[in-house]
């Protein structure tokens, strides 16, 4: 899912706040965060400013935040009564969201969520760690506490020291999203090392990503123009992850794992056709012939182009038509899975639903067919991954890694971030 882009307003005075809001109102972002802790005005002005911001921002969502010094905020915020101000914001019901630091006083947070459960202003329970990245279990535990308090969404931002820390944050987000799919999450790694999480965190389940227009409100924020460019490539131009390859390379099994890791719907093109036709692939081949079946595949691709991003596992002959190849490349990243003929034979030898191998179930015939199709597969593929001698999770992660790299090629900034992570995470070599 493409995350909403949220940019901050950090001007200290009212006129500057509204001036920034008018500029942001023209930009292609979905959400604006007013950081009240930057505000140098009076406490009694806060609700009026919120009302004016909503008017100026029109349809853009407004998140209001009083970030305390303990969680990386400005000193101005300490002038306001924290929970009383939050209460007034919830009672006013003008802002779309209010950020509440859930670690301050969980009982007070819970009481506010219960009392204002019907408020139009939704509570985001947040946690910030500027010194480290907690373990995956700790990340999930903190997000679960926000859920238990009755918050609409849970937010966690932490500081990574290695690339592995970024992976920990992203994988914990994915695990949390899988367990609680209806509980919205906002997660990010901060600083230079964590910039990548702001760009592809949506693939793991984060529904908001914080960027900036001019002045950043947190370390590692990316300019909104870059985020728009990268998001367009990740979530539009390269929407689907499409698996092709000879029968038996493991497309279906790997598709299951990719669906779990990337939190995407899984589609098997052969099963899709079987459901549409109301009969098995072998029956279609026997009664209608291969050409009829290939026509069904071609028409199906147009339908796939209209659905939300998914993991698509294609039949073995999908890439044999040039028209199919062009259509597949237009709707996603095409991943070629390969395996040795001997591996293929061991995987399919007892499968009776392989019409092209009927009466020819042997390694030599498989090798001949694979060689005939090799050029077609290689022509269609954006990336290639071997499945020989690897476990399923290893293959799926390699696909995602190569897919991220491919997406990075579309945007110089994203490529820079990604490659810098690889460099930084390497152990220092002695000269």
CATH T-level fold name of the largest domain:
TIM Barrel
Spell out the CATH superfamily of the largest domain: Aldolase class I
How many strand segments?
14
Catalogue the unreliable spans: 409-431
The SS-based structural class is alpha/beta
Task: Please supply descriptive tags for the structure shown above.
16% strand, 5-stranded parallel beta sheet, disordered C terminus, 2 domains, Rossmann fold, TIM Barrel, 431 residues, alpha/beta
What is the element layout, followed by pairings?
Elements (H helix, E strand, L loop, with lengths): L3 E6 L4 H11 L6 E5 L10 H12 L3 E5 L16 H11 L4 E5 L4 H10 L6 E8 L6 H13 L4 E6 L4 H17 L5 E5 L5 H6 L7 E5 L9 E2 H14 L2 E5 L6 H12 L2 E4 H9 L3 H8 L1 H15 L5 E4 L8 H10 E7 L2 H8 L14 H18 L2 E4 L5 H17 L3 H14 L6
Parallel strand pairs: 1-2, 1-8, 2-3, 3-4, 4-5, 5-6, 6-7, 8-9, 10-12, 10-13, 11-12, 13-14
Helix pairs in contact: 1-2, 5-6, 9-16, 11-12, 12-13, 14-15
What does this structure look like?
It is a single chain. The protein is of the alpha/beta class and 431 residues long. The chain has two domains: 4-237, TIM Barrel, CATH 3.20.20; 240-409, 3-Layer(aba) Sandwich (Rossmann fold). The chain is built from 17 helices and 14 strands. The strands form two sheets. It has a nine-stranded parallel sheet with strand order 7-6-5-4-3-2-1-8-9. Strands 11-12-10-13-14 form a five-stranded parallel sheet, sandwiched between helices. Strand 3, helix 3 and strand 4 (97-101) form a beta-alpha-beta unit. The protein is elongated and about 85 Å long. The chain starts with a strand and ends in a 6-residue tail after the last helix. The relative contact order is 0.09.
């Amino acid at each position: 899912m493409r995350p909403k882009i949220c940019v901050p307003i950090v001007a200290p005075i009212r006129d500057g706040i509204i001036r920034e809001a008018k500029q942001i109102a023209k930009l292609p972002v979905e959400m604006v965060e007013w950081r009240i802790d930057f505000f140098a005005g009076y406490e009694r002005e806060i609700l009026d400013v919120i009302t004016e911001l909503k008017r100026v921002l029109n349809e853009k969502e407004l998140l209001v935040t009083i970030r305390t010094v303990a969680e990386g905020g400005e000193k101005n915020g300490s002038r306001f009564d924290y929970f009383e101000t939050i209460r007034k914001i919830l009672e006013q019901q003008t802002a779309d969201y209010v950020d509440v630091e859930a670690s301050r006083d969980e009982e007070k947070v819970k009481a506010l969520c219960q009392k204002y459960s019907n408020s139009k202003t939704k509570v985001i329970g947040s946690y910030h760690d500027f010194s480290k990245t907690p373990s995956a279990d700790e990340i999930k535990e903190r997000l679960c506490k926000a859920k238990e308090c009755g918050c609409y969404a849970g937010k966690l931002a932490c500081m990574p020291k290695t690339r592995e820390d970024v992976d920990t944050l992203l994988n914990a987000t994915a695990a949390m999203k899988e367990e609680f799919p209806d509980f919205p999450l906002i997660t990010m790694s901060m600083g230079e090392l964590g910039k990548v999480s702001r760009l592809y965190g949506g693939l793991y389940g984060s529904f908001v990503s914080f960027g900036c227009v001019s002045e950043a409100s947190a370390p590692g924020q990316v300019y909104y123009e870059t985020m728009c460019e990268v998001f367009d490539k990740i979530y539009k131009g390269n929407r689907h992850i499409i698996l092709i390859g000879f029968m038996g390379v493991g497309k279906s099994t790997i598709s299951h794992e990719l669906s779990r890791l990337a939190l995407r719907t899984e589609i098997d093109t052969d099963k899709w056709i079987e459901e549409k036709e109301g009969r098995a692939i072998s029956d279609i081949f026997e009664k209608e012939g291969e050409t009829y079946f290939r026509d069904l595949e071609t028409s199906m691709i147009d339908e796939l182009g209209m659905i939300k991003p998914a993991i698509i596992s294609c039949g073995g002959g999908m890439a044999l038509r040039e028209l199919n190849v062009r259509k597949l490349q237009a709707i996603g990243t095409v991943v070629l899975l390969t395996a040795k003929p001997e591996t293929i034979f061991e995987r399919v030898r007892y499968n009776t639903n392989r019409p092209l191998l009927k009466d020819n179930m042997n390694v030599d015939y498989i090798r001949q067919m694979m060689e005939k199709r090799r050029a077609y597969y290689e022509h269609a593929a954006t990336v290639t991954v071997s499945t020989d001698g690897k476990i399923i999770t290893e293959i799926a992660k390699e696909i995602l890694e190569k897919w991220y790299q491919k997406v990075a090629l579309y945007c110089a900034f994203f490529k820079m971030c990604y490659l810098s992570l690889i460099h930084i995470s390497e152990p220092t070599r002695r000269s």
